[in-house]
Amino acid sequence: MKILLSASAAFFASAISVMAQTYEVDIVGYGTAENFFEPLSGDLMVTRSSSSIERFEGLQSTPLAGMTATCFGSTTILRGIVDGSGNCVFTDPSGDKVLQAWTVDEIGEGFAAGTWRFIGGTGRHQGVKGRGHFTQETNALTGSKVMSIIGVAQWIED
């Protein structure tokens, strides 16, 4: 009985992996950002950010083709240690969405870097999985933002 269950589990695991599409993520997004900085002392600062990404390069042959994104979050810097997180909501042309969580590992003037992971999605993006790294640069004078995202994403096939 134990061998039969193990064989069944292996069959279903391989069937599930066959039914998923995996994509290498290497994209660049362009948009605008609004950032708020509040220095509380020489050792403590808090930031709040929100942004819209209107255009991505590198999504053409993926389920994310044509998507836009809105992002928001907050970061504290205490004695040089960065602690921040937030979310991005990606929306495809048909209105289906993907929720992404991010954390900031490094921050500087007009620059941030960290990790991201997909939480889930709606419609054709239900069950989406993925993770990777991002960097972003923001021009404080114009508010323009360029975000580079790398990693792996996986969708369950219909």
Shape: elongated
The number of distinct structural domains comes to 1
How far apart are the termini? 32 Å
CATH class: Mainly Beta
Q: What is the fourth-level CATH superfamily? A: SO1590-like
What is the CA-based Rg, rounded?
A: 19 Å
Query: What assembly state would you assign to the polypeptide chains in this entry?
Result: single chain
Structure description:
The structure is a single chain. By secondary structure, this protein is mainly β. The protein contains 1 helix and 8 strands. It has an 8-stranded antiparallel β-barrel. The longest helix has 17 residues, at 2-18. The two termini are 32 Å apart.
Offer a concise description of the structure.
The protein is mainly β.
What's the structural blueprint in terms of helices and strands?
Layout: H1 2-18, E1 20-39, E2 44-57, E3 68-78, E4 81-91, E5 97-108, E6 111-121, E7 129-138, E8 144-156
Antiparallel strand pairs: 1-2, 1-8, 2-3, 3-4, 4-5, 5-6, 6-7, 7-8
